[in-house]
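Summary for the steering committee. The consortium agreed at its last meeting that each partner would contribute one worked example illustrating the joint modelling workflow. Our contribution is presented below. We chose a case with several input lines so that the handling of multiple components could be demonstrated. No manual editing was applied between input and output; the record is shown as generated.
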Amino acid sequence: MSAPVRRTPVVVWLRRNLFRSWVDGVITTVAALVSAWVLYKSVNFVLVTGRWEVIERNLQLLMIGRYPADDVSRLAITVIVLSGWVGVIAGIVHARQVRAGRIDPSATAWSRRRVVDLTERFWIPALVILLLLVLTDTAGPWIMTGVAVVVAIVGRIVGPFIGRRITGVVAGASLAIVLAAVPIVLYAMIVDAVGFDEWGGFMLNVFLAACSIILCYPLGVLLALGRRSRLPLVRLVSTLYIELVRGAPLFVLLLFANVALGFFVPEGLTPSTPTRAIVVFTLFTAAYMAEIVRGGLQSVPTGQFEAAKALGLSPPRQTFLIVLPQALRNVIPAQIGQLISLFKDTALAGVAMGLFELLRVSEAITQQPDFRGQGLIGETLAFGAMLFWTVSYTMSRESQRLERKLGVGTR
Amino acid sequence: MTRTVTNKRWKFAAGIAAIALVAGACGGDDDDADDGDDVAADDTAADEPATDDTAADDAPADEPSDEPATDDTVEVTQDGGVLDRVLDAGTVRCGTRDALPGFAVLTEDGEHVGFDSDFCRAIAAAVLGDAEAVEHVDLETADRFTALQSGEVDVLVRNTTWTASRDGAEGATFLQTNFYDGQGMMVNAGDFESLDEMDGVTVCVAQGTTTEGNAAAEAARLGLDWEVRAFENTDLIQEAFIAGQCDGWSSDVSQLTGLRSVYPDGPDALTILPEVFSKEPLGPAVADGDSQWAQIVNWAIMATIQAEELGVSSENVDSFSDTEDINIQRFLGIGGGEEGAVLDPGLGLPTDFAYQVVSQVGNYGEIFDRHLSPLGLERGVNALWTDGGLMYTPPYR
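What follows is the complete predicted structure of the assembly.
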């Protein structure tokens, strides 16, 4: 874009690109005025007129809801251990890929380029986390974040050694089991003390989305395969499921799970509300995921299926080794779009199920004696929007990076 | 070849197992948490008979006899019912909300504070002897009755108007009204003097409440042309009102008073018209079909009113321990009189429930002063009957 500016004078460039005809001129002027006005209003709101005290004083409520103060240390431990866990897994995966010759080890060696690359990837979430930390008035979150970052880096450094050392099938399987056990132990530790109903704030949104994403993905893939199955019953069930669930509004499903479940399930067996939300989000997104994956499956050329057969692979291996990897790769943008949408939809759980998630906190805190009647809903919603946008945009950026890495659209 | 295939299968199986584990972790019910609660509940249950010998014969004995507690009466409590669930769980699940100034708002620490919240605490104090043993469940206006019917909450104290269809079709049983309200109209000062002058105007109300229908009915009754616009919450109405999109703002007078007191241009910029055009008795509700629980909740609420009438408050309740007044003795569960017997009316409540309510939460006047007076609300019709108000309870004997 900047190339013509260097070659041609600014006036000429402007005339060519923005004022070619009088219609262009009008559109340009109007658009420029509107954007300038919006920009001015936004900056003015954030820096001048916005009254952010309501956010500052209620930050804990916004982030973790009514989670009991005595047990916050459990959350901190969870965050720290999970950071290390992610670091170790990233290290192991990296080591495996290097060994398989899929990536060049020098690309990830510590260099200026690598630092720039990481900064580019994570500066927005880092900035937002820093902002949140600045707003807190206790040292706890600072310590937690600091330790978590250090642990993640240590995990990333240690990971490759583990990945290189543990190679056999049995050892690999045990490693997988150990790694899978970590989140479960953490989960037990948190839920044992606090239970689900006390969860709230942005933490709840993230938790609902994370669990639903992990659960809906395999279910979606299985449904997509089921819909293309040669067995009539499997095909029928998958198709019915997909069409039924896709035909119902998410809001209605959430309401149903919230209010109607109590009439069918005996009291005492009814799952907690967040569990119901996770189930609904999972089942709903799986149906959409199935159609996206099916699109991916259809984009794999017939030749690939035939080649897989010609190699003498068993049908499951044809699918899981040859067809699915290509199919999933082809539909990364659509998949991530669906997952981002799922993440944002967690806000619906507040309205439909009364969960105390970010949106509801945003509304509730404007009615506190110190803040009511001041029309602060704009401030609190803007804060919530920022958090949602940060996570969604990071997901989107990371998916684009993944696409580039896997060469979607270029090969 | 076969071996590699087997290996791959193992890997695949391990992968599936890992997914299943994660699934179990995420989707699993909070059994563990429940276990934790149960332990806590057992503690309270165990404490109760220890601290209060009468807990056993508070059981809903078929005949309220004066026989000492026997195993039989304990067994009666094992029959289903909300009381047993509450005693088992050690908490009262109270349907409430989190953003209604004066009635229930969240503090920065996530505590529910307000007039309604205090009545939730009063019920817990009466039943469990601990005002903090409340689980506040925030409910949306639209699903509050469903939550009550499906047993998600034990009692609804959520600024809810007692109407015939709610008593009937909604399956709720309304109890002692704890706040008499009525719908009014607020306008910019000087715009209108009475409702009759408001013709061809836009009236803004909150969605999903009785307010919406009342406004339309009142317009029809007066033969006026009102456009009733519904908004999702009061903040949005206020924005619209300031922006001049509404000529009138209609809601319960208690709400309007509170909103007027924090209006950005000062309370004097607004006038609440003298006409009150609906009756809005607000009170707690329980689900139909459990009259024992309904009576328990009723008497817990009435205890606050009775206490005010007797002049008993959280400040002075302990000074009545050697009172000679038979009414106060009965009410506070103090043995007195010639036989020294404690009155047990057989409600299924501990005999000292009123003492617990008053000492931990306060009497009606205290609760009102704590939460509603700061909004600028007067006692008005909510004064005691002895002061010309509507607060009147049956005698406790």
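Chain A touches chain B through 68 residues (CB under 8 Å). Chain A has a mean pLDDT of 87.
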